[in-house]
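Lab notebook, bench 4. The sequencing result for the construct came back, and we need a structural model before the next group meeting so we can plan mutations. Quick request posted to the team channel:

Model the 3D structure of this chain.
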Amino acid sequence: MKCLTVIGARPQFIKAAPVSRAFAAAGIEQVLVHTGQHYDFEMSEVFFQELEIPPPRHSLGLGGGTHGVMTGRMLEGIEKILSEDRPDWVLVYGDTNSTLAGALAAAKLHIPVCHVESGLRSWNRRMPEEINRVLTDHISNRLFCSSELAVENLRREGITAGVEMVGDVMADTNKLAQEVVAGRSAEFWKAANPDMLADEFALLTLHRAENTDDPVRFRALVEQLNSLNIQVVFPVHPRTRKALLREELSLGDHIVTIDPVGYLEMVLLLDQARLVLTDSGGLQKEAYWGKTPCLTLRTETEWVETVEAGWNVVLGEEVESLANLVAESEPPPSWEPLYGDGNAAGRIVAALSI
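Done. Here's the predicted structure in token form:
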């Protein structure tokens, strides 16, 4: 059996690591296609090195451009590869433009599609990611879900065939990363962030278009962040750096900006942080697994289980409440495992092998 896997963005590299290992252990050929959606070193190649992901057989280098331009170019490039390689399966992760392009190219060539992280819904169709995930689910043959809620979301849309709750492959990667950094925290910390951090800090990521491309909301967010009474460590996404320049905004002295970090360093930062401020989807889960309270800088979240557990608060439309929410943030009294037991990759590969 041969499975062609399409990846292109940071969260997909993290998800691909344990699944690639599971394919190798099962003796199944995997062809990796990197679309180049995240194309600078910090956002891409460092993850292949840290997570020991096999090098892509095909690198398309198609990052940049509008959603339509990017997705169209990816669709064209992936279709050509599929026509030549003719794999038994095409596997896609999550909800990026790379995900939709890979799924569409395969479906049009009548190659079965496997969607990992199916059934997520934010119920906000203004999000490009929501459009990508919904369309991908409806053209997939095997739909692997991270939670029972995701299974229920699919059922409500009439999708029941090929659906399986396997858990979250990011839990697999997080489990491995925690083992790697355990007992080596001081070593990593000294190498990564010497003399940079106060005793207490918040970890910030901010990159989604609905925040960075809306001048009113972006300015309000920066104003609130500048008013915080806690040190903030901010790995700055290229899109956000451009938005700061475009809006001629500066950050307060308590906000320490650094370049985007690799996965292991992010796990270490999460382990040390008092609080996470993010508009990332994956980081909400990573914060939960790291038992770090999270404040999601969006109007909704796909990961509602983290909110119900009390470890995640969604900012919503009232950006002006951010400073108060940060000041009031405390870890809940209890924590329970969410999104599986860290063995999702093995279940996915076993299911595709039948």
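The radius of gyration is 20 Å.
Will bring this to the meeting.
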